[in-house]
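Just scan this pair:

***
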Amino acid sequence: MAGRLAGKVAVVTGGSSGIGRATAQIFAREGAKVVVADIGVEGGAETVRLINGSGGEAIFVQTDVAQPADAEAMVKKALEIYGRLDCAFNNAGIEGVVQPTVDYDEADWDRVISINLTGVWLCMKYELQQMLTQGSGAIVNTASIAGLVGLPGFSAYVAAKHGVNGLTKTAALEYAKSGIRVNAVCPGAIRTPMFERGARDNPGIEEQVVAAEPIGRMAEPAEVGEAVVWLCSDAASFVTGLPMAVDGGWIAQ
């Protein structure tokens, strides 16, 4: 049976691990051809190997989303190989350092904003150009629960993720009549390499996170991926401008 995205082409940034890898695999499961983009070659190539080994179709494009030329080249490669672009998941991001706002280093601030916010905008800019040419498309951006509330110590990350949600809503309004939908996912506590890095530096943090989760556990990356792929599918045809919390009820408290 054909998947929900049969005949579609999807780009996934940050596709070398975690939510990006899981989502790329779900796109492929649903019949999409996948362009896996990441700055990390080894992890991105492994994602492609996993997809192709499971009967899907994917290619890897090394991409630094903070570089305009890379963002443009990523979309051009999708068109060169597959001829169109139907879905884009702008997921690449970093957590940055944990410091009170007054102590936050300017270089650290600039790096987080350049990847987590400017990088999303740059990818959207070139994705939207192609989708406008086609007259259709669906974009999902990775924000965070930190794009909905404040988190002490994460000023740059929170500012970037709030920016992603604002950018998502604005683009959704701009292109709603052009056949293009733009949404965001706002993950909570997800078991990803990013979380594991933080947990190594903060013993006991996983227990604290689980205790704060109404649903009583952390999520696996694929649980976010399923939401992303739904937002890109025709099942979500009347959904645009939505920052969707995928957080086990944490933000509802």
Q: What stands out?
A: The chain is about 45% helix and 15% strand. The CA atoms of residues 79 and 229 lie 20 Å apart. The chain has a mean pLDDT of 95. The helical segments are 18-29, 41-53, 68-82, 106-134, 155-175, 193-201, 205-212, 221-232.
